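Predict the 3D structure for this chain.
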Amino acid sequence: MTTRTPLRMRVLRTTLLSLVAGTITVLGVHRFAHTAEPAVVIPPPVVDEPASDARAETAVFAGGCFWGVQGVFQHVKGVRKALSGYAGGERGDAHYEKVGGGDTGHAESVQVTFDPREVTYGQLLQIYFSVAHDPTQFNRQGPDSGTQYRSTIFATTPQQQDVASQYIAQLNKGGAFARPIVTTIETGKAFFPAEAYHQNYLTLHPGEPYIAINDLPKVENLKRLFPAQYRDPPVLVSAALH
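Done. Predicted structure below.
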């Protein structure tokens, strides 16, 4: 049986894409083989969670490769930790090589711990839909395809489920995107941290072709479209937390 190596395949594929893009540009054709999902300016949610005195709340988002999603939320003010991992499947399958097969039920996800006094769940949703990924792509993001790259909100409370559901309806009704949003909402699913080498990947490997092509533009879009929510430097995951 052939062992799947999705990480190596992902890096190799985007390395080749960057070489092709460079060749095409040299020939005078300014079209790239692949670029990051474009950011979309969208309104904030009409319905958000009520004000709270709580100092910490947890949200879980899936939207393609977790490297970029983690990198975006690490630059959001009020976020205390953004941890890459897996959600949607069983604990025994929460390993990169298994999840890469696409049949475990897991999605590459990011667990965001935030202070609701500084950033609301609704504001996180707006960033998630606007710059963190393209919510109109079904079971894929950019060069990555499969159920493990699906667009899913793993609601951790009934309030989160309600706010997310109403926001999706709001955006679809308002025609915020050229195509319908395919993001699903899943509840009652546990989150499992990913392997240590996946944490802070965008920050640690900014020159890697996959990151440069697909993920760094997302952070730049966050800075451009959400200057009031942008923070620099990012809040990183320490070795003691995963």
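Strands lie at 57-63, 79-87, 107-114, 140-141, 144-145, 151-155, 184-187, 191-193.
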